[in-house]
Amino acid sequence: xxxxxxxxxxxxxxxxxxxxxxxxxxxxxxxxxxxxxxxxxxxxxxxxxxxxxxxxxxxxxxxxxxxxxxxxxxxxxxxxxxxxxxxxxxxxxxxxxxxxxxxxxxxxxxxxxxxxxxxxxxxxxxxxxxxxxxxxxxxxxxxxxxxxxxxxxxxxxxxxxxxxxxxxxxxxxxxxxxxxxxxxxxxxxxxxxxxxxxxxxxxxxxxxxxxxxxxxxxxxxxxxxxxxxxxxxxxxxxxxxxxxxxxxxxxxxxxxxxxxxxxxxxxxxxxxxxxxxxxxxxxxxxxxxxxxxxxxxxxxxxxxxxxxxxxxxxxxxxxxxxxxxxxxxxxxxxxxxxxxxxxxxxxxxxxxxxxxxxxxxxxxxxxxxxxxxxxxxxxxxxxxxxxxxxxxxxxxxxxxxxxxxxxxxxxxxxxxxx
Length: 418
Description:
Largest sheet: 7 strands, mixed
Shape: globular
Number of strands: 14
Mean pLDDT: 93
Radius of gyration: 23 Å
Distance between the termini: 44 Å
C-alpha cells in the first residue's frame, strides 16, 4: 500500500516520499557505526569516509557519471541550484581577467516553469545587478522549444538552466536535444554550461548524464525514497586534462568534499542517499512500470466518473513525455471547483495543487498559467502523483472521495445563491 495514515491515501509523492525500509536500515546502521568524523585519521573516521565514497559511487552509477568524483554532497536541491549559478558567475568573472572585450555581466537563461530554487536565484542575480537574465516560455503542452532557447543566447551567456521534468505537470523537457545543439556552437570565448534540475525525474525515469550531455545535474534524495539531503553532479569537476564544469563553494570553511563544500559530512544521510540510489539502479524499470500502470488507471477512472468533457489533463499530449507517476487534472465543469477547495472537502485524499490561497487572496498555479491555460483551468487543478506502492484499490477510494467533494462544493454554492 502507499503511505496511508488514519484512512488517508497519500498521492503527493512529487512533494516528498517516505524513506524506503532498506534506506532506514542503512541510515540506522551508519548512525551506530559511521559516527566518527570522516576527516579524522582514526579507524572509525576512515570507515565513515569509506561509507561516503561508497555512496558517491552508487549515485554516479545511478546517473551513469564517468567519475564518482563528479558527485558532490550538499544539503539539498536548493543549495545545489544556488551553487551552479554561483559557480558559473565566478567562472565568468575569471574569464573577464583573460578577455578585455567581454560584457560586464554574465547572462543566464531559464524557463518560466522552473522551481523557485532556480527562478529566484536567477532573478536575484538580475535584481542585484550581478547578471542578465532571459526567460523562455513553454508551449501550451508545458515544454520549452529548443529553437526559442537558442534564439536567446548572447555572447555573454554562461548558463542555461532547464529542469528535466516539471514538478506539477510531469512534462519532461528536451534537455538532451538542447545540449546537443549547444555542443555544436560552444567553440566560443564564453562556454555555455547546461544545468538541469533533475529532482523530479530521478527514480521515475532513466537519468543518464552521458546521454543528456549536461554539465550540471541536481539530485534530491527525498524525491526518490531517500533522506532530505542532495547532491550535485558537475562534469569532470576534479578531473585534470578534461573540460571541467567549474565548481566554487558558497561557504567558507574547511576542505571537505575535496574543497568543494565545507562542513563536516552528514555520513548517515549520505549513506541513505547512496542506498536510495542503488535501489533506483536495480529497480527503476519495475518502479516506473508500476507507477505508469497506476497513473493511467487513475486517469481512466477520472474520465469514467466525471466525463472527459469535464476534465483537462494538463501536460498530457502526444507531443510530450510525462513522468510515469504524475497526473495534473483540472475540473472544468464549474468555476467553483477550485483545487484547494476540492482538497479541503476530501476526507481521504492527500494531494497538492499548484494554486494557493493566503489571507483570503487566491492565486492560480503559475505553471499552468505559463502554459497559457485560462485562470479557471489553472485554478481548478489537482496534482495527483502516485508512488511505488500505490494500489488500484486506493485509486478507487480517491476517485469516490473527489466525487463526494465536488458534490459538497456544488451544494454549498447552490445555497449561497438563494
